[in-house]
């Protein structure tokens, strides 16, 4: 067992700059740390919706001084799992990208297959698959986009523990774990699958996070899962604490006996 200590950047300094409702919230610390670990020049997300995971990737690029770009591909029309929605979600995402990540974000408002021709083979360092979650859709997205991933690149699969409706990401990722040499699955939240494409330059010392992700030591892998369960709880607890502080700051300050403090002497004597 390794005696190295890995202290993730997310536990040192990560404060999400965008928080919107999404089941991705449980994996934000890992997303932040993965970017720091692989330092991707090109990240592609298939299925952006309201941008929680997408903008976490972007934030990590900036805060860890990484020269890279993020492409978000989505039709922003909804699907059978999310139902249809209007253009306001896309406009909100586009505004946030323009205001905070101008120059490193590119939003491609189109279907995934339409975007394929915009990318050369073996150029994507990090691919995130988070579109329609049926077995057939996830299989199609992986099959079509896998050639775009460079050897040694990372592919993420969201909702690999969600066995609801006709979701099939869990079943497809189970199959990949049987056929691919390097995979990892986070079980908390709705689950997140991690796959590393074979090949690439393995001569340089490997980042500690990648060592742990693809270790053959099951105890190390189990502890890494526990670490990111704790990290997600810590992030949520800190977010709630900050929210309560903000709410308290908006109210009147209370003096002794619960009386409202005021600078008016006459009011204090009343």
UniProtKB/TrEMBL annotation:
Kindly state a single biological-process term from the GO annotations of this entry. Answer: DIM/DIP cell wall layer assembly
Q: Which Pfam families match?
A: Methyltransf_24 (PF13578)
Read off the InterPro entries from this record. Answer: SAM-dependent_MTases_sf
Keywords of the record, alphabetical order, are: Methyltransferase, Transferase
Gene Ontology CC: plasma membrane
Annotated GO MF terms: methyltransferase activity
Task: Identify the stretch(es) annotated as Disordered.
Answer: 245-270
Protein's recorded name:
Class I SAM-dependent methyltransferase
Protein source organism: Halioglobus maricola
Q: Upper lineage ranks?
A: Bacteria, Pseudomonadati, Pseudomonadota, Gammaproteobacteria, Cellvibrionales
